[in-house]
Specification:
Helices cover 45% and strands 18% of the residues. It is of the alpha+beta class and 310 residues long. α2 packs antiparallel against α3, α3 runs antiparallel to α4 and α4 runs antiparallel to α6.
Length: 310
């Protein structure tokens, strides 16, 4: 055979079998690999944390937290969906749908965690930080004069009367005790009440907040009821019972206070506690995510080994 033939570009051994070149997966360029599934599993956790913190801090701002949560979810769907699009050569459809499904769980559970943390703790922080602060208030004063109060420091003559306390049981024990003034101006009308949950026993053992401290003369306004926390309604039921037992006259909308020796320190503690609740929920969600990831990998390997359709 003439080696100078211009149409001959390769020398092939006719007895040599052609090498098999496996087809490339569609949508994946040469040298490009799909992100590891473990890396994609971190996206739902980050999404959970972001959404939970937004709702914990901005739930009281109409539309802001919902808008941010939707934007985060859409962005995560676009990111994880592009990197884990199901193809015919995918090991299993479970591996491809895992990131998207966990992103949805991250948004939903993050929203619930953030709203709960806001209603249980952050709302009390905002109530104290954004409300008016009053000092040397007499407990015999009308509640209407302090309707916008966030923090109240009472006069030295005012105290929590634990002998008239009461605990209303409805799964939890909702404890209330009237705040009274020792002066002659005090009547049977009680407009200020110290409140707490699961901090009193039968009788007059009211030990909520800083009640044991004689120097404690202040309180933080209890937040209004929400979706998860409805303690305000239960406190009012306890106040109605206490007023009936001790023959007291109660304002229609009494001021409920968490008794605290230092209301400013108490409001900051509420914010830190809310962050702690979100971090705890995020840790539980991380365990749940990695458990689902392990199950997904296990099921994908079982389907591949048994020859099931992919």
């Amino acid at each position: 055979m003439d080696n100078d033939d211009p149409f001959q570009t390769h020398n092939h051994n006719l007895n040599e079998a052609p090498r098999y070149k496996p087809p490339r997966a569609r949508g994946i360029r040469r040298g490009e690999e799909q992100p590891p599934l473990l890396l994609l599993s971190c996206v739902p956790l980050c999404l959970f944390l972001l959404v939970a913190l937004v709702f914990m801090l901005l739930w009281h701002v109409p539309g802001t937290s919902v808008t941010v949560a939707l934007a985060c979810f859409i962005g995560s769907v676009l990111t994880t969906g592009q990197s884990s699009t199901a193809t015919k050569d995918s090991p299993s459809a479970l591996r491809d749908t895992f990131p998207l499904a966990m992103c949805l769980f991250g948004v939903v559970l993050g929203t619930m965690s953030g709203v709960y943390a806001y209603e249980a703790l952050t709302a009390q922080f905002y109530s104290a930080a954004l409300g008016q602060s009053y000092s040397r208030v007499l407990a015999c004063s009308p509640a209407a004069a302090y309707a916008d109060a966030g923090k109240i420091h009472f006069a030295d003559s005012s105290e929590v009367n634990v002998t008239m306390s009461l605990g209303f049981q409805n799964r939890n024990t909702y404890c209330v005790a009237p705040i009274v003034d020792n002066s002659s101006a005090q009547t049977r009308r009680i407009d200020f009440w110290a409140v707490g949950i699961n901090c009193c026993e039968s009788g007059n053992k009211f030990e909520c907040g800083s009640t044991r401290k004689s120097v404690a003369k202040g309180g933080i306004r209890a937040p209004p009821d929400g979706f998860f926390i409805k303690s305000g309604q239960e406190f009012k039921h306890a106040i109605e019972q206490a007023s009936a037992i001790h023959n007291l006259v109660v304002e229609k909308d009494p001021i409920l206070l968490a008794w605290d020796a230092d209301p400013t320190l108490g409001q900051n503690a509420s914010l830190l506690a809310a962050i702690g609740v979100v971090i705890l929920h995020a840790a539980l969600f991380a365990l749940f995510t990695f458990a689902v990831l392990a199950a997904t990998v296990l099921l994908s390997g079982t389907a591949r080994g048994s020859g099931l359709p992919k």
